[in-house]
Hints:
Layout: H1 12-22, E1 32-36, E2 44-50, E3 56-61, H2 78-92, E4 100-104, E5 109-113, E6 119-120, H3 121-126, H4 134-147, H5 156-165, H6 169-178, H7 182-185, H8 198-206, H9 209-224, E7 228-230, E8 239-242, E9 245-248, E10 255-257, H10 260-279, H11 285-313, H12 324-349, H13 355-358, H14 363-382, H15 390-402
Antiparallel strand pairs: 1-2, 2-3, 3-5, 4-5, 6-8, 7-10, 8-9
The protein binds 5-S-methyl-5-thio-alpha-D-ribofuranose and magnesium ion.
Residues 41-42, 66, 68, 72, 174-175, 178, 233, 352 line the site of 5-S-methyl-5-thio-alpha-D-ribofuranose (SR1).
Amino acid sequence: MTSFDSYFLMNPDDVKMYVREKIAGFENTGKLSCKEIGDGNLNYVFRVVDEETGSSIIVKQAGETARISDDFKLSTNRIRIESNILKLQGELARGLVPKVSLYDERMNCCVMEDLSDHTILRTALLEQRVFPNLAEDLSTFMVNTLLLTTDVVLEHKKKKELVKDYINPELCEISEDLVYTEPFNNCNNRNELFPANKEWIEKTIYGDDRLRLEAAKLKFAFITNAQALVHGDLHTGSIFVKEDSTKVIDPEFAFYGPIGYDVGNVVANLIFAWANFTFTGGSNLDYRNWLESTIAKTVDLFTEKFLASWQENVTDIMAKEKGFAQWYLDGVLADTAGIAGLELTRRIVGLAKVKDITSISDEKSRVQAERVCLETAKAFILERKSYKNGQDFLDTLKKVYNR
Ligand code: SR1
Ligand code: MG
């Protein structure tokens, strides 16, 4: 009989036993099936189905290294962070994250709602599917989980407690390396440049002193600006969608960091979907129009809801000074632009790629897609203080594309 009293990495048979032992409703069932379905870079995700009733559940377990590479030795504590923050985000942004039913600190796993009736947003966008509520849902998720965890809203000692609870040094180090460092100098030899773009990237990215200086400034803001409890990895692979529902998953990179880290990741990854559409000869104009308006609307609705929530929820007396909300928001939008630029850069230059770009099979088209994303990224990083609304982001993208 397997004991779940001390940690080991489970296989699907272990997970079936685990679920029978731990989860009410699954104890006496005659037939369970279990499959590892994870496609993320870090953890193992098992889907367990009761074949008699059709009920299903997800078990997510952390290994001591990253799933994609044993190079990354990681604390299994990330599952505690993920379980806790999903509960908190579930309170702040109702209906927009999966429900967690169990966190097991010995087995370093958690059990949560199965969202198999949803699709990963990145996959759905590559299929050119439209989700009318996406900008509404993502902007609500970001405003509620971000502004409401800042110290302009929370009592300051409570906020500092949260900063302590969500210290996440190893996963932050991954972002410090993969997002803020390696794409600008290949210092750890982990970058992978598309061969036909190698020389161009070496000159345009590694060879640009001004760009590297701005990336350095953004890096130390990421490390020191404990502004809000950010998701920390809010790309389109961390979002599940179906027609009338959006669920944000995988917050294991959560920590107290800049609000723009989440907003910038969303913007950049929607731009990757745009690049895929544009450079694979996409002709569905309804989809393109929806995608472009979603990029702009996500920023604009974020801004609108942020200012409305500010009026309603801010408690700090100095934060209520006239002009302070707009000054704070301008900083968030500048970070959003800078971080969107960093994300666009690192997913093309660095280790962790995105399918939107790697699946472009025609060499010339992929070269062009990468160059448009990287030139857009540079403008976002270098001119970040000039981005004030969603159209500003689209204008840069279109200007670069039409050059
Ligand atoms: C070693 S982890 C590589 C990337 O996958 C995660 O989803 C994060 O984006 C991280 O940077
Ligand atoms: Mg993930």
